[in-house]
Structure formats: structure tokens, C-alpha cells
């Protein structure tokens, strides 16, 4: 695979900035602890020193917690860091008021904001928007649905609440088996629809063979097809779906996503991960201090490679040039 250099790429780093919870343990309305604020600030600071920019898509428990508020205050107090940070919104409906229940577990289908009724989705996002505005002094314009869960009413709600960009699309993914959205028909194309810029989280089908990469990029639905020919094609040509993320993917995987997609003409990339992964023992991806060291190193190495090897540049989500047209 050669370095694709069609056009210098741009990188936005989106952190799903949220509470800590048991990833396999359901949607408990009481699981709202945030104990990784200092580690998160340290990483944002390191990235900023490298010239990299970060969009913190923050949810209600994070913005309401002491550590979350300290993290926000530490960013705001530094001119150098705050110019490299955007505060966006991330909606986890089960821990975001107004609440339908104050104890117990929310059923899985209601963990996706897009499955709520219009009134509920709007009311919850309005509460979150108010809380973020109060803590940061700016109104968020970038939205990330919890569990990538956008629905039929989401664009209307976003328009009404002043949002301009949605980053909830997860290309190729199909979450229907857990009552979630179906993104099988989406690749990484950025689209302007209903006055909202949809910028997908970067995912790509990588393979050592360019015709295979081209095929799945132009026909994303095929990737999840049960067709025997497609299954054989994937196996023989080693086609694999990678998200541009340090969670569950190696540095080589991450570089391959960008190389493959840049060669296809993609210029704008989103690197994403969950904020609790910055501290040991809070997510399945970072179980101990050794893994934490590797995780941070992977992010910083990737950022360094992106800038030095690809002549890449860093932007926040709201700095995408099409946002100016909205
Ligand atoms: Zn989340």
C-alpha cells in the first residue's frame, strides 16, 4: 500500500466525553461517575502542544460533574489550549434530564436518542445544550448522538436548537440487532442535508488490493451482504472494516484507514475515542496502566505521523469550510 497523497488531509479529533459505565451492564440511570477529568485534560493539553485540535462532544453527566467542570475550566483558562478546543454535545438519553425514571435500567431501544419521540429527544437535547452553554460560555454547534443513534426527527431537533453539524454517522455499521440505526448504505462522504452538515466518523474497508477498497467504498451496502461471492471476496482479499480509532485498532490499522481513504480522494477525517479510555480500568480498551501508556502513545504517534508524513492539518469539527455556508 503506498501513501496516498491526492490532497493534504485534515484531521478532527472527536472525543465522546462522557461518564464511566459498565460497557456490558445495561443503561443504568445511576451510573454517572466521572473520575477521569484530570487525565482527559492532560491529553487535550498534550495534543494542543503538538498543534492538534480536539472537539469534546460532552454529555450531561460529564458537564454536570466536578471533574468535568474542572476540565472545562482548565481548558478555558489557557488561551493556547482553548483556541484548539471545540465544545460539542453528546446525548446519552438514559442519564440526561428530563427523566422518565430516576432509578433502574432504561431498555436498550431507548438508549438511542433517535428512538425517542420528537418531544423527548428535543427536551433532552435542549437541557444538555443549556448545561453546556452555561459551563463553557458558548453554544454548541456540533452534535454526536449517544450510540450513533440518530433518528427521523434528529435533523429537525438540531435545526431548532441551533446545531450545524452532526457527526453521528458510523459508515458501514448496522446496529439494528440492538434496536439501533442502520448505516450500511453510508460511506465517508460528507453531506449537507436539511441545513445540517453530516460528517461521518471515519471508517474504511481496508485491503491490500485497491480494487477491493474501491468496490466497497462505492458500494458500502455490499460489505455486510450475506452473498457468498462477497464473503469469499472479503476473505480472499483480506478486506476488513476499521474505524479510525485507537480503541481496538493498532497504529498500523489507523494509518491504513487514512492511506486507503486519502488515495480514494477523502480529505477530511475524524479520529474518535471515548474519554474514559484515557484512564486505566474504565473501558474494555484500556484495562491497566500498561494499556493506558500504549493507548496515549498510539494517539500521539498517529497525530505526529498525520502531520509529518502526510502534511496533514488539524481542525475542530466546526472549522470545516462548509460550515460557513450554513
Ligand atoms: Zn457515548
Automatic annotation (TrEMBL):
GO biological process, one term: carbohydrate metabolic process
InterPro entries (alphabetical): Glyco_hydro/deAcase_b/a-brl
Protein name (database record): WalW protein
Amino acid at each position: 500500500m503506498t501513501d496516498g497523497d491526492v490532497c493534504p488531509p485534515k484531521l478532527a479529533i472527536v472525543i465522546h466525553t462522557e461518564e464511566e459505565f459498565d460497557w456490558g451492564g445495561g443503561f443504568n440511570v445511576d451510573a454517572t461517575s466521572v473520575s477521569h477529568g484530570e487525565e482527559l485534560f492532560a491529553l487535550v493539553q498534550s495534543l494542543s502542544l503538538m498543534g492538534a485540535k480536539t472537539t469534546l462532544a460532552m454529555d450531561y453527566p460529564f458537564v454536570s460533574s466536578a471533574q468535568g467542570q474542572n476540565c472545562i475550566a482548565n481548558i478555558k483558562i489557557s488561551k493556547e489550549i482553548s483556541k484548539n478546543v471545540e465544545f460539542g454535545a453528546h446525548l446519552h438519553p438514559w442519564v440526561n434530564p428530563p427523566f422518565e425514571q430516576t432509578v433502574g435500567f432504561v431498555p436498550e431501544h431507548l438508549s438511542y436518542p433517535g428512538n425517542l419521540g420528537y418531544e423527548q429527544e428535543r427536551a433532552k437535547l435542549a437541557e444538555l445544550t443549556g448545561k453546556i452553554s452555561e459551563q463553557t460560555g458558548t453554544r454548541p454547534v456540533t452534535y454526536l448522538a449517544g450510540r450513533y443513534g440518530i433518528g427521523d426527527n434528529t435533523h429537525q431537533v438540531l435545526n431548532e436548537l441551533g446545531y450545524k453539524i452532526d457527526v453521528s454517522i458510523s459508515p458501514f455499521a448496522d446496529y439494528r440487532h440492538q434496536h439501533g440505526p442502520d448505516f450500511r448504505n453510508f460511506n465517508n462522504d460528507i453531506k449537507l442535508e436539511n441545513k445540517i452538515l453530516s460528517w461521518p466518523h471515519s471508517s474504511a474497508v481496508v485491503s491490500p488490493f485497491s480494487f477491493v477498497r474501491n468496490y466497497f467504498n462505492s458500494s458500502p451496502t455490499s460489505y455486510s451482504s450475506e452473498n457468498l461471492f462477497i464473503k469469499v471476496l472479503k476473505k480472499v482479499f483480506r478486506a476488513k472494516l476499521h474505524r479510525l480509532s485507537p480503541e481496538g485498532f493498532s497504529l498500523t490499522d489507523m494509518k491504513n484507514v487514512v492511506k486507503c481513504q486519502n488515495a480514494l480522494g477523502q480529505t477530511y477525517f475524524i479520529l474518535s475515542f471515548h474519554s474514559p479510555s484515557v484512564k486505566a480500568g474504565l473501558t474494555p480498551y484500556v484495562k491497566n496502566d500498561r494499556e493506558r501508556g500504549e493507548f496515549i502513545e498510539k494517539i500521539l504517534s498517529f497525530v505526529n505521523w498525520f502531520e509529518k508524513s502526510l502534511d496533514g492539518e488539524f481542525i475542530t469539527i466546526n472549522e470545516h469550510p462548509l460550515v460557513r455556508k450554513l
